[in-house]
Design a protein that fits this description.
- The structure is a single chain.
- The termini are far apart.
- This protein is of the alpha/beta class and 242 residues long.
- The chain has 7 helices and 13 strands.
- Helix 1 crosses helix 5 and helix 2 packs parallel to helix 4.
- It binds manganese (II) ion (MN).
Length: 242
């Protein structure tokens, strides 16, 4: 079996190193990750510029692109065959609720599932001890490798410290302070810094946020289908169909 790892925090990130240590004993390990941090780039793919690959060691590459670029070039060019699981992480910081829309970590795992391969995104809420999160990821990878289930996209969030266990969760809703900080650069030109800190998380039973705040690992299965099935009826009325 072969496994592909990536991490939107970059090839040098400690979360990736922790994951490599845990997953390496399971099979042939390939690591393809951005050469620098590319967090919050979501599913961005570099189809309008050249990509450069920098071999670091055997089966280990840095790419001057996005997390999705890394998975794409790995699956369609570097790897000798289809990997059993693609693991993205361990990310520094949570990917809870609506974070998954922006997350490069989740997008890299989603890219695998788009190609029919299990994708696991793993994020550590706080702190820098990535070992427990990486060990949890290994357990999931072992189980996925044993199943014949259809490809799944799993968004895993790990609380700081030793987890009490794991819970299967729904996506919650996370709120941020919406900010645009307007400043002037040293040459006298305006620039803008967008995005404020997280402010609160809605109390939703069974959500990822509830689980991690109770000390559990949250495992949220994510769907690729973005159709609003509940909205079909009202939109049919809106467009005058039927
Ligand atoms: Mn990141």
């Amino acid at each position: 079996m072969i496994f592909l790892l990536t991490n939107d925090d970059g090839i040098g990130s400690p979360g990736l190193a922790a994951l490599e240590t845990e997953i390496a004993p399971l099979g042939e390990l390939w690591v393809v990750a951005p050469e620098r941090e590319r967090s919050a780039v979501s599913q961005a793919i570099s189809i309008h510029r050249p990509l450069r690959l920098h071999p670091i060691s055997e089966r280990r590459y840095a790419v001057d692109g996005t997390p999705v670029d890394c998975v794409y070039v790995a699956l369609h060019h570097l790897l000798p065959r289809v990997p059993t699981v693609v693991v993205s992480g361990v990310n520094r910081g949570a990917n809870l609720g609506t974070d998954v829309i922006y997350s490069g970590t989740v997008a890299a795992a989603r890219e695998a599932v788009l190609r029919g391969i299990h994708g696991v995104a793993v994020s550590l809420l706080a702190g820098s001890d990535f070992r427990a999160a990486a060990a949890g990821a290994r357990e999931l990878v072992v189980r996925l490798a044993r199943t014949s289930a259809a490809p799944v996209l799993l968004n895993v969030n790990v609380p700081d410290g030793e987890p009490k266990g794991a819970r299967v969760t729904l996506l919650g809703k996370r709120h941020y302070q919406d900010e645009v900080d307007a400043r002037t650069d040293p040459r006298g030109r305006p620039y803008f810094w967008i995005g404020g800190p997280g402010t609160r998380i809605d109390h939703i039973d069974g959500s990822d946020a509830e689980a991690v705040h109770a000390g559990f690992v949250s495992v949220t299965p994510l769907a690729l289908d973005q159709t609003d099935h509940a909205g079909l009826v009202s939109v049919r009325a809106l467009v005058g169909e039927g």
